[in-house]
Amino acid sequence: MMKIKEIESQIVEEFDNFDDWMDKYTYLIEMGKSLPLIENEFKIDNNLISGCQSKVWLHASYENGKVIFTADSDAIITKGIINLLIRIFSNQAPDDIINADLNFISEIGLQEHLSPTRSNGLLSMIKQMKLYALVFKTKMQNQ
Amino acid sequence: MMKIKEIESQIVEEFDNFDDWMDKYTYLIEMGKSLPLIENEFKIDNNLISGCQSKVWLHASYENGKVIFTADSDAIITKGIINLLIRIFSNQAPDDIINADLNFISEIGLQEHLSPTRSNGLLSMIKQMKLYALVFKTKMQNQ
Amino acid sequence: MNFDVNKIRKDFPILSQKIYGNPLVYLDNAASTQKPAIVIDTISKYYSGQNSNVHRGVHYLSMMATEAFENARKNIADFINAENSNELIFTSGTTESINLVAHSFGRKFISEGDNIIISTMEHHSNIVPWQILCEEKNAKLSVIPINEEGEIDFEAFGKRLNEKTGLVAITHVSNALGTVNPIKKIIDLAHSFDVPVLIDGAQGISHFKVDVSELDCDFYCFSAHKMFGPMGIGALYGKEKYLEKMLPYKAGGEMIEKVTFEKTTFNKLPFKFEAGTPNVAGVLGFNAAINYLKELSIEKTSAYESELFKYATIALQEIEGLRIIGTAKEKISIISFLIGDIHPFDAGTIIDKTGIAVRTGHHCAEPLMDRFQIPGTIRASFVFYNTKEEVDSLVKSIIMVKNMFE
Amino acid sequence: MNFDVNKIRKDFPILSQKIYGNPLVYLDNAASTQKPAIVIDTISKYYSGQNSNVHRGVHYLSMMATEAFENARKNIADFINAENSNELIFTSGTTESINLVAHSFGRKFISEGDNIIISTMEHHSNIVPWQILCEEKNAKLSVIPINEEGEIDFEAFGKRLNEKTGLVAITHVSNALGTVNPIKKIIDLAHSFDVPVLIDGAQGISHFKVDVSELDCDFYCFSAHKMFGPMGIGALYGKEKYLEKMLPYKAGGEMIEKVTFEKTTFNKLPFKFEAGTPNVAGVLGFNAAINYLKELSIEKTSAYESELFKYATIALQEIEGLRIIGTAKEKISIISFLIGDIHPFDAGTIIDKTGIAVRTGHHCAEPLMDRFQIPGTIRASFVFYNTKEEVDSLVKSIIMVKNMFE
Ligand SMILES: Cc1ncc(COP(=O)(O)O)c(C=O)c1O
Ligand SMILES: Cc1ncc(COP(=O)(O)O)c(C=O)c1O
Question: Would you kindly state where each structural domain of chain C is located, as residue ranges?
Fold first, then answer.
C-alpha cells in the first residue's frame, strides 16, 4: 500500500494536467461516478455527516491494523471529493490518518471547499475520518 | 388683554435686542426667575408633564371665558420658556389658544427646543396647554 | 420602457465586481439585495459627522441624530402608509419582528386550546416562533395546505378559521416559490372572525407598493437588507390597538418610563418595544434605501421586474429537463428549479464558477421541500437591477451544467 | 508618554467637526463612542464589494462573506480570551445579550423562591430583565447596597448569596459613577456557592483588557458601539456548559437544524442563538474596531486614559461648588457631577452651546439616582482620543454656567 504522502502527490499530479476549473470539475465528476459503492446497509441516518448541503454517508471498519472507509453522497461533486479522500485514507494505519496534513487540497485548487463554513463539509468529512481512526486506535490499545 | 399675535411680536422684539446665544439664554434665565409662582397645592404629580428631562408642573383654570395657566419647573431655562408660553396663552380665550401657530419660537432662535424628541418637552407643554383649552371649550359648550 | 437599467446599475458599486474573472451576475436577491451608493454613503456620513446616541441627549449631535432617527421612522411609516408613526417599531429584521409578536402578542392573547394558522410555504422564521408558542401555551399550529402549483388552498384556510383561532401568520410572497398570496382576501376573511393577521413581508415589500391601511393587516414584518438597505435593521408595523396591549419584549434602557426596584413602568409606543441603544446608522441607511426606491418609483421597478420575470421564466422553461418548482398564477421575481436529476448543490457549484450567484438548498423552508419531496432547489431571484443579458448568462450556465453532468 | 493623541484623533473623522462654530469636544463616550475611519471604511467596502447573505450559500460572495464573518467571530472571541469561538454569540448589543440570558438561562434555571442578585448601580438593562423574570418565576430580586462613595458593600453581597441564588448579574464599570467593581472577587465568591455570574461589560471592555478565562465569569455582555464599532451589534460571551443547556431565544432561520411541522431541532452553538440573517456588516465593523484597539494596544490607551482621568478629576474638583457623585477608589473614565444647585438640564443646555457634548439626566440608572437623592447628574466620559485641552474647555464652560446661573 502506498503512503498517504505518495497518494497525495499522485493526485496533485493528476490535477496538474488541467489548467482550468472546468476540466478539474469534469475530472471530479468522473471520480464521483467511479466511487466504489457503499453497502446499502450502511447508508443509514446514523452514518450521515452533518453540516453538508448534500447528504454524505460514511462507514468505517477496521481490518488488520488498517481503517477501511466506504462512503456515498447524493451529490456527484461531493462524491468526487469523497473518492479522493478514500483513496488517501482507506487502507491506512490509524496513526497515519490522524497525523495526515492534507496539503493536496489547496494544491489542486479546491481550497474553497476547505472553509469551515463551506456547505459541502469537506472539513467535516476529514474530521469524521480522523475521528474513526482515533476510535480504532483507542480500541486497539485497550485490547 | 393683548392678542396672542401681538404678544408674540413683543417677545420677538425683546429677543431682537440680543445677537448671541449667551444673551438670549441670560434673558431666558431672567424670565425663569421672574415666573409667577404656582400655588403649592398644584405642584402635584398629577400636574406633571411627561417627556421632560426637568420636571414641569402645569395648572389651568377657567375664568370669565379665559384660560388661566400657572406653572413651575425645577430647571430654570425650562421656567424661562414656560414664562414665555404663559405670557402668550394665559388669559386668552380657548379658541385663540387652540388655533395659535406660535411662529415666535423659531423666530427668536429657540427652534432647537421644538424637536419632538427634545427632552425639555416644549412641544409637550404646548400640547398640554392646547388640550386644556379644548377641555374648557367642550365643557362650556356642554353647559 | 423608460427604465434605464444600465444607468441604475451604476448606483450599485458591487455590480461591477468580477467573480473568477467573469462579471458578477447577482441572482440571490431573495437572500439579500445589494446596496446603492446612497445607502452606503448615508452610513459613512452618519459615522463621520453625526454619530451619537439618541433620545434624552441635550447636546447638539444627540439632538441631530435623534431628529434624523425619528424623521426616518416617520418616512418609513409613511412609505407603507401606516396611520401613525408610533406603529412602526424598529427591530433587527423580519425574524425579530415575528418573534416580537410571538412573544408579546402571543403570551398575552393566545391561550390553551387556541389555534394559530400558518401555511405550508412559510419561511422557518414564520414557523418556529409559532411552534414554540404553541408548545408553551398548549395551542395548536394549523397549517394551510398548498396545491402542486404552490398556491394556498383558500377553501382549506376558511375551514381552519374558527372562534379558537388566535392569529393568522402568512407570508406575502414565498421566498422559495415566488407565489404571491392573496393576503387581502385572507385578511378580510380572518377579520370576519375577528382574527388578527400577521404578514411576513420580507419578500413582498421591495417588489410592490405595500399599503398597510388599505390591506388592513394587523402586523407587517420586513427587513431592510432585502430592500436595498443595510443589514441588522428591519421593522414591525403593528396596529396601535394591539401594540398598546401587548407585553414588552426586550427590557432595558429606552423602553421604560420609570424604574425603581419595586416597580417599573413602561414607556409609550414605539419606545416600549425598543430597548437598548438603537441602530441609528442602520435606520438612516434603511431610510435612504426607502427614499431611493421612492425616487425610482416602485410602479416602474415593478413593471420592469414583471417583464424580466416573464422573460426569465420563458427562457428557463425552454431548457430541456428543467423543472420549475412553483408555478402559481400570481408569482413574482423568484424562480426555483431543478435540472433533470442533478443535485442542486452540484448545479450551484458549477453555476458559481461562471460568476453567477444563485442559491441552492431548502431556502429555510424545509416543510415546503418535504411537501414537494425534493432535497432543495436552485433559486434565481431577480430585482430591477438585473437584466435580460444576465438571464441569458444563466441559461448558458445551466446548459453547461447539463453538459457536464449528463 | 509615547502616546500621540493628536495623531490618533486624525483617525476619527467626526472629531474635526465644529458645533455652533466651536470645535467639537466629545465627552459623551459612555453613551456611544466615535468610530475610526477604518471601521467606517470596512463597512463601506463590505457593501461595495462583498455583500451577501452568509452560511449555506455556495456562491463566491456568500462564501467570502461567511468566511469574513466567522473569522471575525474568532478574532473577537480571542480578544476576550474565550476558550472557544462557539461561546461568542452575536447580538444587537448589551441589552439584547442580557435579555437573551434572562430569557434562555432564566426560564431554564431559575425557579420559584430563587433569588437573583444585582447591585444598586446597575443600568436599567441589567435591572428590568431580571425584574420581569423574577415576577414570572416568583423569584426575588436581591439588591446589593452601595456606600456614599458609590462602591458596592461586599459584605452585604456575601450575606445575600445563598443556595437559593440563581445568578449574580453585575456591571463591570458603572456607567453613571465610573466605579470599577471587584468582579473577580465577586465571581470567586459566587462560584464558591456554585452560583454563575453575568458581567455587564458595556462600560468595561473598551477601557481595559478583559480576559473571560481568567475572570472565569459565566457570561460577559458588551456592545460594539461603545468600543469604537458600529451600532446595532454586540456580543454575549457565555460558557459552553450553560449555553448548551439554555433554551433557544429568537427562533427562525439559521438557528434550526431540521424543521418539520411536527418537530424542530435546534442548531449547534453559536447558531442556536442567532436566528435570522445576521448583521454581517456590523460584525465586520465590530471586528475592525477590535483590531484598531489591538493595534493601539489597550495597555497604552488605558495608561493614557488613567492620566487624563486624574487630570480631569483634579481640574473639576477645583471648581467651587462642584460636587462629584461617585468617588470610589477604583474608578475610571467617567465623572458625574453637579454644579451647586443648578439643574443638570440647565447646565447641559449651556455646556452644549460651547460645543461640548456631555450627558445629563439619570443615565438609565434611576434607582442609583434615588439612592443619592438627586434628579440626575452631568456626566463627562472620556476615552483615549480626548485631551487635557478638552478638559480645560469643559472647566471653562462650567465656570461660564456658574456665572450665568448663580
Ligand atoms: C452599564 C451599561 N449596561 C448596559 C448598557 C446598554 O447597552 P446598549 O444600549 O448598547 O444595549 C449600557 C449603555 O448605555 C451601559 O452603560
Ligand atoms: C419569507 C421570509 N420570511 C422571513 C425571512 C427572514 O428574514 P431575516 O433573515 O431578514 O430576519 C426571510 C429571509 O430569509 C424570508 O424570505
Answer: 5-30+297-405, 40-294
Chain B residues with CB-CB distance to D375 below 8 A: 54-55, 74
Active site residue D364: yes
Look at residue D27 in the predicted model and tell me its pLDDT.
Answer: 98
Measured between alpha carbons, how far is C359 from C377 in angstroms, rounded to an integer?
A: 8
Instruction: Identify the domain containing residue A96 by its residue range.
Output: 4-138
Question: What is the CA(C331)–ligand 2 centre distance, in A?
Answer: 18
Interchain proximity B26–D350, CB inside 8 Å: no
D106 interfacial to chain B (CB closer than 8 Å): no
3.40.640.10, 2.60.40.10, 3.40.50.2300, 1.20.58.480: CATH of D40-294: 3.40.640.10
Cα torsion B128, B129, B134, B136: sign: positive
Q: Is the pLDDT of residue A97 over 80?
A: yes
For ligand 2, whether the C-beta of C223 sits within 6 Å is yes
Instruction: Kindly give the distance from the C-alpha atom of residue B53 to the centroid of ligand 1, in angstroms, as a whole number.
Output: 19
Pairwise CA distance, residues C239 & D387, whole Å: 49
pLDDT at B51: 64
Rounded distance from Cα D26 to ligand 1 centre (Å): 18
Judge if ipTM > 0.90. yes
The alpha carbon of residue D364 is apart from the nearest alpha carbon of chain B, in Å, by 12
Atom of ligand 2 nearest to the CA of C363: 14
Give yes or no for residue C99 CB within 6 A of ligand 2.
Answer: no
pLDDT tens, B81-138? 999 999 999 999 999 999 998 888 888 877 777 665 555 578 888 989 999 999 999 9
The pTM of the whole model exceeds 0.90: yes
Is C97 near ligand 2, meaning CB less than 6 Å away? no
- Look at residues C169, C90, C166 and name the one whose alpha carbon lies nearest to residue C126: C169
Q: Is residue A143 part of a domain?
A: no
Q: How far apart are CA D59 and CA C131, in angstroms?
A: 32
Closest alpha carbon to C114 in C171, C151, C160: C160
Is A120 a residue whose pLDDT tops 70? no
User: Using 50, 70 and 90 to split pLDDT, how confident is the model at D44?
Assistant: very high
Please give the Cα distance from D365 to D344 (Å, whole number).
15
Give me the CATH number covering residue A51.
3.90.1010.10
In angstroms, what is the span from residue D97 Cα to ligand 1's centroid?
10
- Which whole number is the average pLDDT over D26-52? 97
pLDDT at B117: 56
Closest residue in D to C251 (Cα) is D129
Q: How many structural domains does chain A have? A: 1
For cell 458625574, the residue is D336
Q: In this predicted model, what pLDDT tens digit does every residue of D172-201 receive, in sequence order?
A: 999 999 999 999 999 999 999 999 999 999
Is residue D220 within 8 A of residue D80, CB to CB? The reply is: yes
| Residue B139: pLDDT over 90 | no
**Quick check: D63 and A116 CB within 8 A?**
no
On whether residue B143 sits in a domain, the answer given is no
- Identify the closest residue of chain C to D144 by CA–CA distance: C261
Encoded amino acid at C15, one letter: L
Q: Which of D255, D252, D260 is nearest to C367 (CA)?
A: D260
Q: Alpha-carbon distance D252 to B107, whole Å?
A: 52
Phi-psi sector, A120: left (phi>0), alpha (psi -120 to 50), beta: alpha
pLDDT confidence of A51, banded at 50, 70, 90?
Answer: low
Low-confidence ranges of chain C (pLDDT < 50): none
Residue B78 domain-assigned (yes or no): yes
Which ligand has the nearest atom to the CA of D368? 1
pLDDT winner (highest mean) among B110-114, D65-69, D167-171: D167-171
Interface check for D63 against chain A (CB to CB < 8 A): the answer is yes
Active-site residues of B, by number, are: 52
Work out whether strand C334-339 and strand C322-325 pair parallel, antiparallel, or are unpaired: antiparallel
Instruction: Indicate the average pLDDT of chain A.
Output: 88
Query: What CATH class is the domain C5-30+297-405?
Result: alpha beta
